[in-house]
Amino acid sequence: MSANTYEVALFGEFFAKDLPAIMNRITLNSESAKRMHTREIVFEPYDAQHQRETGTEPVLLRAKKELLDQDPKWILYSYLRPEPVRTHPEATVRPWATCQVIGDALSFASALGYFRRSQIYKRGYVFRRRGLVIQMFQQEQVDPKTQKPLPVHADTLWEVEVKTAIPVRNTQETPLSRWIDAVLEVQLLMKGLLDLRRQDV
Q1: What confidence score (pLDDT) does residue 174 get?
Q2: Which domain of life does the protein's organism represent (predicted)?
Q3: Into how many domains does the chain fold?
Q4: Using an 8 Å Cβ cutoff, are 5 and 176 in contact?
């Protein structure tokens, strides 16, 4: 995994009643759209508590699988702490490493010294806009007995993530400022309907 690649992102949320208007505006300003149903498992290191006690923020590992793909494969990825607000005040910029795993990604994470902390399912839509991906989804809770997703409540908030589709490098030819401008363009397009903002998570 290479550590000098980044994700540039903005985040927002809205109530279900606003879905048609927001969906229309995003669709009009995107090149493609499809349904998504993603399973995501978050792992943390076995010594995470010790790391926190000694003032270090543990690096979490995430395993993601798109269930609607014809041949779903696990992708393992990890974010590091976002760059400071003073460096990038307009958007979340965080180091991002990713790798595709052939076979059992969950055992692979365990072999790396990680244990499963939580699991969520995300159901909604994914749009492509040039080098960006816009995900619009509701989080489904997991049935503790079956480990399957439960239907969402009618009042469950919709979440939106506007982000670079793949890890990007900060180079002279493609500076991070280009990607920040791209997500800010979407922020401007959604003004009055959806508040997209920087988030430190």
Answers
A1: 87
A2: Eukaryota
A3: 1
A4: no
